[in-house]
Write a structure and sequence with these properties.
Elements: H1 6-13, H2 21-24, E1 35-38, H3 42-55, E2 60-63, H4 87-107, E3 118-122, H5 125-140, E4 146-148, H6 150-156, E5 172-176, H7 184-197, E6 201-203, E7 208-213, E8 219-224, E9 227-230, E10 234-236, H8 242-247, E11 256-265, E12 275-278, E13 283-287, E14 293-299, H9 312-324, E15 333-343, E16 350-353, E17 359-363, H10 373-386, H11 399-403, H12 410-413
The protein binds flavin-adenine dinucleotide and pyrrole-2-carboxylate (PYC).
């Protein structure tokens, strides 16, 4: 008589050996990836690119809840500059500016970096003092920056209204000639293509919903909308949502998230030669290669995860732009949008290891992380690959808030937040 007991059937299925049992248990998942990057913005994709290019890791996944470049990388106004006050920041942002200069060649993808000059307007005695201090500090750090009179500012940017009758007249300006703009989506696509060519997996439409830790507390991988993905190294670069993602590992971050808006006009022929920023009247402007005037202001005054923001911000900004550049009064606005930026108490980023072994974080860029993209990605890749910071990002720890070693760049952030 045939034996149909479950045991006998299993014995037959496994070749009649008594050793079938271990295969019956679910094995502990082995690390599938050398590193996982959460967030396919410019910083995340760039990090994967440099991990592969400079540190020889090929088995990397970039996990993105939406589409690549659909976060702040694709929503920002692309201003690039390195005129920050403190030594630590000047080193970080100038590292990035130097990388921008050759990024198109590095990626063989035109990121349209255009060093057309960034001019920051002074409207009060306080502005003059602050900007002159920046000019001197920058020069001491080998970062170009120069002081212009109002007349010199107008010569550099002819549409600028320097009438003394303005409510906030232009009293002078600080000019960084190496500053400028780049094409934001090209940066995301350039890094994505470069990383993909070296074997990096870019997994879109796959939200990270949990960070799994082993009995020793170290990271073992991430839970996602598509299932568990294992890795002993996880780098979180999820601007605006970093606090939410890091909470999944039990860490509370010193971050607040705000909407930041921007808008563009109808396209016109080339009319605006540089970038002009004014923190005092809350407006900045440049012209894109498509011809649109690219305009923005400070953050909304409330914390939120809404990628929209209040209508009073664009309207207030346009008032300021029309006063500074009266020739734009009759132009029509084409569209406006918002992104979510996360800010730290000292308005400087965190690029660091965390107290959780195998978990790294890059966040807190507030309104100003696009300019840092190549430099930030480069030093973050170093931090993940070697489990220790690059000298340039060594000061940008989480612990500085506990220890009171701030890098207070609120003034250099230039966009009120
Ligand atoms: P992002 O491009 O936002 O990428 C983070 C990604 O993480 C997103 O794609 C998001 O979908 C993903 N993500 C979030 N949560 C999860 C999850 N749970 N699972 C998986 N993926 C997740 N900076 C400048 O230097 N100059 C400027 O002129 C400038 N202008 C700006 C104007 C506006 C309107 C805004 C909103 C920002 C501006 N910034 C500017 C700031 C700049 O855009 C950001 O600091 C920078 O782009 C951040 O890049 P990132 O790659 O870190 O973030
Ligand atoms: O950081 O220069 C900047 C910036 C400009 C607009 C938004 N951020």
């Amino acid at each position: 008589m045939q034996n149909f007991s479950a045991f006998a059937l299993l014995q037959r299925a496994f070749g009649g050996h008594a050793s079938w049992q271990p295969q019956w248990r679910t094995p502990e998942p082995k690390p599938a990836y050398d590193a996982i990057i959460v967030g396919a913005g410019g910083h995340g994709l760039g990090t994967a690119y440099y991990l592969a290019r400079e540190h020889g890791l090929r088995n990397i996944a970039v996990i993105e809840r939406g589409w690549l470049g659909g976060g702040n990388t694709g929503r920002n106004t692309t201003i690039i500059r390195s005129n920050y006050l403190f030594d630590e920041s000047a080193a970080l942002y100038d590292h990035a500016v130097k990388m921008w200069e050759t990024l198109s060649q590095e990626l063989n993808y035109n990121v349209m970096y255009s060093p057309r000059g960034v001019m920051m307007l002074a409207h009060t005695i306080h502005d003059i003092q602050v900007f002159k201090r920046h000019v001197h500090a920058n020069r001491a750090n080998g970062v170009d920056n120069e002081w212009l009179t109002a007349e010199q500012a107008k010569e550099f940017c002819p549409p600028l209204n320097i009438s003394p009758k303005l409510r906030y007249p232009v009293l002078g300006a600080a000019l960084q000639r190496r500053g400028g703009t780049a094409r934001h989506d090209a940066v995301a696509w350039g890094y994505a293509r470069g990383a993909d060519a070296m074997g990096v997996d870019i997994i879109q439409n796959c939200e990270v919903t949990g960070i799994r830790r082993g009995p020793d507390g170290a990271v073992t991988g991430v839970e996602t909308a598509k299932g568990f993905i294992a890795s002993k190294k996880v780098g979180v670069v999820a601007a605006g949502h970093t606090g939410v993602v890091m909470a999944m590992a039990g860490l509370r971050m010193p971050l607040e998230s705000f909407p930041l808006q921007a808008l563009v006009s109808e396209p016109v022929k080339p009319v605006f030669p540089c970038v002009v920023m004014s923190n005092t009247v809350h407006a900045y402007i440049s012209q894109s290669d498509k011809g649109e005037l690219v305009i923005g202001a400070g953050t909304d005054a409330f914390v939120s995860y809404s990628q929209r923001g209040g209508l009073h911000i664009p309207s207030h900004t346009l008032d300021a732009i029309c006063e500074l550049f009266p020739m734009f009064r009759r132009m029509r606005m084409l569209r406006n949008w918002g992104g979510i930026v996360d800010t730290t108490p000292d308005r400087s980023p965190i690029i660091a290891k965390t107290p959780v072994p195998g978990l790294y974080v890059n966040c807190g860029w507030g309104t100003g992380g696009f300019k840092a993209t190549p430099g930030s990605a480069h030093v973050f890749a170093h931090t993940i690959a070697r489990d220790e910071p690059h000298p340039i990002n060594a000061p940008f720890t989480m612990e500085r808030f506990r220890d009171g070693v701030m890098i207070d760049e609120a003034a250099a952030a230039a966009v009120a937040h």
